[in-house]
Amino acid sequence: MTENVTKNSRRASRGEAALSRDTIIDAAIALLDSSGENGLTFRALAAKLATGAGAIYWHVADKDALFTAASDVIVARTMGVSLPDATPQQHIQTLALAMFEAMDAHPWLGSALSRAPGQLPTIRILERLGQQVAALGVPGGQQWGAACTLLNYLLGVGGQNAANASIAQVQDLEREHFLQTMASTWSQLDAQEYPFTRSMAGKLREHDDRADFLAGIDLIVRGITASAQ
């Protein structure tokens, strides 16, 4: 009896070791993309991997750790782009847009990053942005504020855009119809109390999320550059 238990334990250990952490994380990303954060459970993941939950726990402590690890894989892939001939401004724009598109493709990513402040996924983004802030010639004492401003804008706007897309998907809303409805509401606001918002109703109908995002990045970079002179 003892011998059989020992053999079974060794077999389970080999199975746990054979299932790699990368395989688990890739499966978690697929679940998150298809079913959202609520769809990521160890039971669903074990079923997808055709294994037991114990094999997953061998590599990942809990759901929060798995959520962060999945976000780190996406961020690492996104931040891994090489731009040898780009200027610091071009670097920042390219990296920021890449993260914006990553959050658009993986709507859960914004939530994951907001719940892991100071951890590796966010550090990867901050490091790449900070290097380019330094390359812009920003004095050392101003680099932290400049890099954090870029990071917070990137995560805030990118995350909100992804959240909007998720809401639209859940409610089965087409973007054009949604914007038309909102623009119609804005155009009927009181002209004295909401002059600016009412005047932007037409712009709302035709605006491009990526273009608006990059315009904000450009404004921040111009401010950073001007303050460094």
In short:
This protein is mainly α and 229 residues long. It has 13 helices and no strands.
Fold and architecture overview:
- The termini are far apart.
- Helix 2 (21-35) packs across helix 5, helix 5 crosses helix 6 (88-105) and helix 9 runs antiparallel to helix 13.
- This protein folds into 2 domains: 1-60, Homeodomain-like (Arc Repressor Mutant, subunit A), CATH 1.10.10.60; 81-228, Orthogonal Bundle (Tetracycline Repressor, domain 2), CATH 1.10.357.
- The protein has 13 helices and no strands.
- Helix content is 77%, strand content 0%.
- It has helices at residues 2-18, 21-35, 42-49, 53-57, 63-79, 88-105, 109-114, 120-135, 140-170, 175-187, 195-199, 201-206, 209-228.
- The chain is mostly helical and 229 residues long.
Tally of helical segments: 13
The class by helix and strand makeup works out as mainly alpha
Low-confidence stretches: 1-17
Q: Count the domains.
A: 2
Task: Give a topology summary.
Blueprint: H1 2-18, H2 21-35, H3 42-49, H4 53-57, H5 63-79, H6 88-105, H7 109-114, H8 120-135, H9 140-170, H10 175-187, H11 195-199, H12 201-206, H13 209-228
Question: What attributes characterize this protein structure?
Answer:
2 domains; 229 residues; Arc Repressor Mutant, subunit A; Tetracycline Repressor, domain 2; disordered N terminus; mainly alpha
